[in-house]
Amino acid sequence: MLRNGLEPWHLLIVAIVFIVMFGSKKLPDTARALGRSMRILKSEAQAMKADGTVGEPANGSAGEGSSQVGEGAAHRTESVVDRREPVADR
Length: 90
Fold this sequence. Notes:
The chain is mostly helical. It has 2 helices and no strands.
């Protein structure tokens, strides 16, 4: 059924669908934003690797870090204020 899984004409159809869906004006902006996001992700990953914090707990042992995060999260949720304005009837 899927002997020839991905052929050049499949890519052409996908490209045409993207052009039709997003339009020729939005495609360069979308590609630029995607490239910028990828560069940011790459630089952040390199910074984490340089710091040596990949996969390590922030405060040494896992038990201490998890209890401190829980306390901080509880404090933050108490200070959340609902600032939605009432919807006026039309």
